């Protein structure tokens, strides 16, 4: 067994992990980044479409281009990286002592670290979470699988495609299939509104005349060896299929793009508190979890729609790690809890110090126009909010909150 | 989605995609002027005119690679191309094969519908003796 001592250990080399490791190294902290795949970069490696980096690099790039630049910058900052390295467990001993056990190709590596930045991304939701019945036949892929097969390995997974879910991943895969000559029969969305960004509705569906069925669900996949058809039905207000509305769409491929869930198994094993709304860890404004010195960022913290925000969270966590190490813990003693109020599905972070400006990430429950985002006496005008577009806003908590605030609600309220 | 379908040749309804507000825009032509209704900002008017007169898109796909550590390389058009050119670009890129190594930004094909096809990923050469 090899032992190593570092200040910051980053788990997962996607956009958040790479940005975190780069920032930590730039802040003068000895940093190691481990990745379980054989290549650095994470999900953007398989994203050949543009729309990446508009905020972070002020430039429209494809996923591959974005991550290439991020990796270049990290190498220049002098971050040590280990690929083909699987994190087995994290052990907490004291404020400045944690062990991370890593299985590598050259044996077991025990990394003794002051802080951990956990950026292991998210997993895709699958059929068993959607109440879709039928046999386990060939031709059913998650969107990420289909993307990998098509855009890393150049193989078209099928010719007549039905996509379940109208989130950005589903929309982008609809366009990729259509561009490569497949017939995208339908995108099926259980909610009454589309799940993805507007620009993707226009450029991925409208451009290719792909029908979008809102308020519909796939109830069954039919086929003996390969997918032959799907059964689709309208849903009622409780998202239950209305059997009398059922119809069939013939197809040979079903792509499941039904959203992501933060991948936090390792954190749960050491008892990190989890927010049932985001399904990610509960964090303070430094993105520190309920276990001191363990930070989370990117899709492992909250499912982002823009890579730019995942990278930003990585940097916030690295800043947090620096403050943590210098003060032997985050120095804040009194926290104010942030609670999602009217028409908000979640707000991250969950606790603020009231000492400085903090970036809040939030998502609405349903679309709403002409509203304020309201926190105590602070109000920000928002012309249009949609669940697909995460709110990112910097809040001057030091100026808006009184000392007696212990719990404060963030709400979306209509104009007077 | 009905509201955003083309209603007639002279009038079009669009959703602005410049920012998350997503204004519903109405574009129409009278004599020789183009009018835009429903935009909250000048960028929306610009977008609507562009989309009405000359809709363009960046096209992305993959191209076959010989002797690469991956069988394909991702590519895109260097500039947005006319929407009606998308099919031509897909047919041309489907017929191309490049030889590894491929650098990011390398031009794979020149001047197709006014754009170059450039690589957006690096593909390393594999040593066949291994």
Textual characterization of the structure:
The complex is a heterodimer of chains A (416) and B (130). Chain A is α/β, with parallel strands linked by helices and 416 residues long. Chain A has three domains: 2-123 and 261-331, FAD/NAD(P)-binding domain; 126-258, 3-Layer(bba) Sandwich (FAD/NAD(P)-binding domain); 335-416, no CATH class. Helix content of chain A is 21%, strand content 37%. In chain A, the strands form seven sheets. In chain A, strands 1, 2, 5, 6, 7, 8 and 20 form a seven-stranded mixed β-sheet that branches. Chain A has a five-stranded parallel β-sheet with strand order 11-18-12-13-14. Chain A has a five-stranded mixed β-sheet with strand order 23-21-28-25-26, with no helix packed on it. In chain A, helix 1 (15-26) runs parallel beside helix 2 (63-77), helix 1 packs parallel to helix 7 (307-327) and helix 4 runs parallel beside helix 5. The mean pLDDT of chain A is 94. Chain B is built from two helices and eleven strands; from the N terminus they run E-E-E-E-H-E-E-E-E-H-E-E-E. The radius of gyration of chain B is 20 Å and the shape is elongated. In chain B, the strands form three sheets. In chain B, strands 9-6-7-11-10 form a five-stranded mixed β-sheet. In chain B, strands 1-2-3-4 form a four-stranded antiparallel β-sheet, covered by helices on one side. Chain B has two domains: 2-54, no CATH class; 60-119, CPE0013-like fold. The longest helix of chain B has 12 residues, at 42-53. With 130 residues, chain B is α+β, with helices and mostly antiparallel strands. The A-B interface holds A 45, 48-50, 60, 62, 64-65, 68, 150-154, 179-181, 197-199, 201-203, 205-207, 212, 383-384, 386, 389 and B 1, 4, 14-15, 17, 20-22, 40, 57-62, 64, 70-72, 74-76, 83, 86, 90, 104, 120-122.
